[in-house]
Amino acid sequence: MKIRNSVLAAAFLAGVIATGALAQTIGGHSLLTPNEIKWGPGPASIPPGAQAVVLLGDPDKEGLFVLRLKLPSGYRVPPHTHPKPEITTVISGSLRLGMGETADRSKAKLLPAGSFIALPTGMAHYAFADEETVLQVSTNGPWGLTYVNPKDDPRQKTQ
Fold it and tell me: Which letter does DSSP use for residue 68 in this model?
């Protein structure tokens, strides 16, 4: 399973690189304007329909990386955890974020653009996007996502 996840992560990153989505590095600085962002498909670990771009680093390797996710209206991510702390900023749109192992929309907090989220390692959470929403995720790799209910994992549906 670990090898398969590594292959999927590498394929995701290769797709992002192929679209020219990585930030330009000049003199040790990374520069990327919004109109230079070239979105690619989201990682296989999240439900289909999202788009993604790696702004910095490599989600498949040790070390800091920054990822933007564009979620379509009506998008849902079932309860899941991450193996490392996750820092997320809502760039545009809004996100409904809930904590716990059961997705309950009525308990999810509405987070408008500009909202900041810091989740510790292993914190079970879920999300809903009522409108197109762009998130910026900063964390250390390798990136991982484990669903509370394995049947929710979209990687299991492709077998």
Answer: E
* Under 8 Å between Cβ of 1 and 156: no
d(CA 65, CA 60): 9
Distance CA 92, CA 53 (A): 15
Contact between residue 135 and residue 103 where contact means Cβ atoms under 8 Å apart: no
pTM, two decimals, is: 0.81
- Domains in the chain, ordered, with CATH? 2-158 (2.60.120.10)
C-alpha Rg value of the chain to the nearest Å? 15
The predicted pLDDT at position 5 comes to: 42
Q: How far apart are CA 87 and CA 157, in angstroms?
A: 28
Q: In angstroms, rounded to a whole number, what is the distance separating the alpha carbons of residues 10 and 6?
A: 6
